[in-house]
Amino acid sequence: MLGRVNHVAIAVPDLAAATTAYRDTLGATVSAPQALPEHGVTVVFVELPNTKIELLQPLGTDSPIAAFLEKSPSGGMHHICYEVGDIFVARDQLIRGGARVLGNGQPKIGAHGKPVLFLHPKDFFGTLIELEQV
Q: VOC domain: which residues (predicted)?
């Protein structure tokens, strides 16, 4: 079911500072910031040869990333995203296997314009998993 790692997401309290650190200190290529109000975040993607790093900053106090940063004020790894060929087939297989899909179970459109779902971290050893259809 799982394809390659699409990205690792890192919640950050200051997106501009994080972008500067990745671009200027580490020499990475970074995207322009992209606001995703339906997900409550602004994102920047750090392009790597084999995957991406997604830097997440909350859009408002009701963002799930704001809650994450309350617990970890300096930021940290938020989730890992795996690619799947068919998000509905993957979802149904996971539910049959006992995994919990967050939200209403219906995919949302993610930062790459593709359908995404999130899986409960308690079902995957404390790791929030995002699935993205490719």
A: 4-134
Q: What is the pLDDT of residues 45-67, one digit of tens each?
A: 999 999 999 999 999 999 999 99
Q: Is 130 a catalytic residue?
A: yes
The angle formed by the CA atoms of residues 70, 66 and 106, to the nearest 5 degrees, is 130
Range of the domain at 26: 5-133
Instruction: Quote the CA–CA distance of 93 and 119 in Å, as a whole number.
Output: 12
Please tell me the distance from the alpha carbon of residue 82 to that of residue 133, in angstroms, as a whole number.
Answer: 9
- pLDDT given at position 2: 94
- CATH value at residue 37: 3.10.180.10
What is the reported pTM? 0.94
Per-chain mean pLDDT for the chain: 97
| Active-site residue (options: 38, 54, 70, 130) | 130
